[in-house]
Amino acid sequence: MRLVFLGDVLGRSGRDAVVELLPSLRQRLKLDFVVANGENAAHGFGITPKICEEFFAAGVDVITLGNHTWDQREIIPYLDADPRVLRPRNYPAGTPGKGAGIYAAPRGRKVLVIQVMGRLFMDPLDDPFAAVEAELARQRLGTTVHAAILDVHCEASSEKMALGHYADGRVSLVVGSHSHIPTADAQILPRGTAYQTDAGMCGDYDSVIGMKKDAAIARFVRKVPGERLSPAEGPGTLCAVFVETDDSSGLAKRVSPIRLGGRLAEAMPTED
Hints:
272 residues, alpha/beta, six-stranded mixed sheet, 14 strands, 25% strand, globular
């Protein structure tokens, strides 16, 4: 199976990159399933139902969120209405929406998607390791599901890496989101799980992690409240991680970064 995870889609620049580039990318790489992190899609803060529908129309199968899940209030009822949008699994019981789901893929196959949020330098949520364990105890890669993707929405790279090794051999891909910078450590872990610490951002890289430079710099220089941060509006780069899995085990055969458009050097997996 061929899977892609799109890094945090930030503002209109990121949305435009996804809508413009994803349809042809699905055809070019013969993709079976696409997950996108959409928590920054609405002007950098949260996501709306309308934007979700735009992503689905462009070829996204599942949208994950993160610490900006609740920034657009209209998304709250939508989380219960559409199971294709996931908030972090380790929010407390009773929180709207859900943090994991099983989704249909071509030829009758099933894909498990889980998202958890880290606790280092972030909100003190429930234990993400326990949340992952609870989901993986119910499903078995290569038996009940044909592929599994774990989105680890974390500030600390150490926490992402620990969760990667924790889930090694039990999911197809562990990929980090939230940092907005693509890391150079795409690899297959010892037990067969593909891993990358952060997929990066779909957005304008002539920025400070996607936001306009002047206001962001002023916050560091002056250390006083100032202009509200807003997304940079230049050409967007689509950043993602590609994984091809073994059909029988669901484990990774290869993993590769994707970078298309905008300012960053292009990277694409080899085509078969």
